[in-house]
Design brief:
0% helix, single chain, six-stranded antiparallel beta sheet, mainly beta
Length: 285
């Protein structure tokens, strides 16, 4: 259900338990209901859900509900106190079933999807806002651009092939589809950029640019600028890294001046191309 890719349909494919379905399908004739507990990638508040039943045309779960719980780190799900977020709702076959909560929820770490009484759900999506947890020691260095620490893309010049928000994700990606790649430019002096609002303003110490999987379409050069602003998209920028060369399928580190506080970073690729990840390390203000 939490596979990031859309569900696929393979008619005629069978396995030991019956027709192969891309999703979660439970056995028939449950006298109560089936359930699945999901640990969220990051703690967060919830605003709505999509219970996607694509390709489940007569075997979809007819009803579903969603509960939530907050579990401190290292706690067992057996200790969870479940709170209902989405009451029992009817699900339509072979479709997105989108439900928006009346009010944004409190912060939770786990969700329980109740499949009532049984059947199939292809994908489950939970929409909301991250609630970053920062270290108590403000001298601890962390990636302030990382999505798990509250970093987000607020502006991008071009994302023809893949979204710029990918550069803030964990890991190094499994292929170029997990990074940010722009279209080929033909105009002299062209460059593409993305503006990152850091999770917290901080003293920046190092930037790491990852071109993993980009072997012939990496940028010729990159540059970094910083700003301290209460605006979502600043207009005044300070150079952090002047135009500098990078190469294929590797990590490139750049030391930054840690004496100034910045809330935003503008990352530019010259003239175009693709990168997998951008890490902006520093200490919270």
């Amino acid at each position: 259900m939490i596979n990031p890719a859309p569900p696929v349909h393979k008619p005629g494919k069978f396995i030991e338990t019956g027709a192969w379905m891309d999703g979660w399908e439970s056995k028939r004739h449950n006298p109560t209901y089936d359930w699945c507990i999901i640990q969220l990638g990051f703690p967060g508040s919830l605003k709505g859900f999509d219970l996607d039943t694509h390709y489940f045309t007569g075997n979809q779960a007819p009803f579903a509900s969603v509960d939530a719980a907050y579990l401190p780190q290292d706690s067992s799900v057996d200790e969870a106190h479940w709170v209902q977020l989405l009451p029992r709702v009817a699900l339509h076959p072979d479709s997105h079933n989108i439900f928006e909560l009346t009010d944004e929820s409190e912060v939770y770490t786990h969700l329980r999807v109740n499949n009532i009484p049984d059947g199939g759900i292809a994908r489950f999506r939970a929409y909301g806002n991250l609630f970053p947890v920062y270290p108590e020691d403000k001298d601890e260095e962390l990636d302030l651009a990382f999505v798990g620490h509250g970093g987000k893309v607020v502006q991008v010049s071009d994302q023809h092939y893949t979204p710029a928000s990918n550069i803030l994700l964990p890991g190094r990606g499994k292929n170029m589809g997990d990074g940010w790649e722009t279209r080929r430019s033909r105009e002299p002096g062209h460059k593409d950029h993305v503006v990152i609002q850091l999770g917290q303003p901080g003293y920046l110490t190092k930037a790491v640019i990852d071109t993993c999987h980009y072997r012939g379409n990496y940028p010729h050069q990159i540059s970094l600028e910083g700003a301290l602003s209460s605006e979502e998209i600043p207009t005044q920028w300070t150079t952090l890294v002047p135009p500098s060369s990078v190469g294929p399928h590797d990590l490139f580190s750049f030391d930054l001046d840690p004496t100034h506080v910045y809330s935003h970073v503008k990352f530019s690729i010259i003239p175009d191309g693709g990168v997998q990840r951008v890490r902006i390390y520093g200490r919270c203000q």
